[in-house]
Design brief:
Distance between the termini: 50 Å
Shape: elongated
Order of helices and strands: HHHEEEEHHHHEEHH
Strand order of the largest sheet: 1-4-5-6
Number of strands: 6
Radius of gyration: 39 Å
Length: 425
């Protein structure tokens, strides 16, 4: 009996040693860094942010003067003639060429350019919001995959422990059968249980490989890349539900983005108003026109002009009304977003508390099931217990251990989901 206990302890300890932190073990933060560095969607989102930054510079460039050049060659079927009473005088060539350059500088646009710059700046904020939202989503997926690997590794240990225990029990049954102390049906029963344990181990190994492939995919690696992961910090998160909800309403990117979209619409209304205000611009330039009948073929000119759209058929009013409706729609979306964020925080908070209670319950069940298995095996060896009781105890030990690790990593996932829901992942 001492030998059996020692063998079981050595087997379990050897399995668990495989999961002790290694010198080069990868932690969750490193996983996030690798995923964010190589993820194509993050790279694409970063390009969108860069594009929005260029858009701001483009909007500001509207304040700068614009210079236009022109050139042409003209043919007339008849030369132009000026009539002054009975006299006629040719004033142009029949064929002539000309060229010119013109500079236009906006002096006053009713706030249109300022609004355009402001809108571009809000566009940059929205592009950054999209990038931050994508980062949070990827971090959550990586964390889920990371936790799934840890979970499947622990469940594989449970399956290996059951298989090793049943193998040892199989030897004991064979010895007892040789001594005529048990029926052959006991041996057949343990052999069937061994086959089931082998199948369970194969399924656990496959689940671990699937989890590893998913993890490597998210990190942009070869799917067969082997990695050692550090276990997570299982420290509990403290705080009231009301406090978490308050933080989420301040931090969640979706709410920040919705507010930015509203700002963009308000700026667009200002730009519509600017469209019906007077526009003042300075135009200056040089124009040359080949014509031997004029004294000055080339001339410089400068003009300060005003353009004012006095009537646009109601277009600006309709556009403003359209934008106001869109603002109302965004307001309704913000209300729904706040309610949805509250629901997500509440769900994550409840799940975290539920897993905390589960861990306390199943942890005790693990020690009880292990003690029960030891006692029943001892009784069976002494002929005081049935073979079915041993197998039931083995199944109960496996179930309680699986429940413990599932509760442990459900709790880890619940803490990650709560941080994500609060907007601080």
């Amino acid at each position: 009996m001492i030998f059996k206990k020692t063998l079981t302890a050595i087997t379990l300890a050897g399995s668990l040693l495989a999961f002790l932190p290694a010198a080069n073990a990868e932690n969750l933060q490193q996983s996030w860094d690798i995923a964010l560095k190589h993820n194509p969607m993050i790279l694409a989102s970063a390009k969108q942010v860069e594009a929005a930054e260029i858009g701001i510079e483009g909007a500001k460039a509207q304040r700068m003067p614009s210079v236009t050049g022109s050139a042409g060659y003209t043919w007339f079927d008849n030369p132009q003639v000026s009539i002054a009473g009975p006299m006629e005088m040719q004033v142009s060539e029949k064929k002539m060429y000309g060229y010119g350059v013109n500079m236009s500088l906006p002096i006053y646009t009713g706030g249109y350019i300022s609004g355009s710059v402001k809108n571009a700046e809000v566009g940059l904020d929205i592009a950054q919001n999209d990038k931050d939202s994508l980062i949070n989503a990827i971090k959550l997926r990586v964390a889920e995959s990371y936790i799934n690997i840890l979970r499947t590794q622990r469940l594989m240990v449970v399956a290996e422990t059951r298989l090793d225990s049943l193998r040892q029990h199989h030897k004991n049954v064979e010895q007892l059968l040789e001594q005529g102390m048990v029926a052959k049906s006991d041996l057949l029963s343990v052999q069937a249980s061994l086959a089931d344990a082998k199948q369970s181990l194969l399924q656990a190994e496959n689940a671990k490989e699937l989890a590893l492939a998913q993890y490597n995919y998210l990190l942009g690696r070869d799917l067969e890349y082997q990695v050692v992961l550090e276990d997570l910090d299982h420290s509990e998160i403290s705080g009231s539900l009301a406090n978490f909800v308050e933080q989420a309403r301040k931090n969640r990117i979706e709410l920040v983005k919705a507010e930015n979209q509203k700002r963009s619409l308000l700026t667009s209304i200002d730009m519509v108003r600017a469209g019906v205000k007077p526009n003042i611009a300075l135009n200056t330039g040089y124009k040359y026109q080949e014509n031997s009948f004029t004294k000055h073929e080339g001339q410089w000119s400068a003009t300060i002009g005003v353009q004012w759209k006095l009537f646009d058929g109601g277009q600006s009013g309709k556009k403003k009304a359209e934008l106001m409706k869109q603002i109302s729609a965004v307001d309704e979306q913000i209300i729904d977003l706040k309610n949805r964020v509250t629901l997500e925080v509440r769900s994550a908070w409840l799940n975290m508390n539920e897993t905390k209670l589960r861990i306390a319950t199943v942890k005790e069940a693990v020690s009880q099931s292990e003690e029960s298995l030891r006692n029943i095996k001892a009784k069976y060896a002494a002929g005081m217990s049935t073979h079915s009781e041993v197998l039931d105890a083995e199944a109960l030990r496996e179930l309680s251990s699986s429940n413990f690790y599932n509760a442990k990593y459900d709790a880890a996932l619940a803490r990650i989901e709560l941080r994500h829901a609060v907007g601080v992942l």
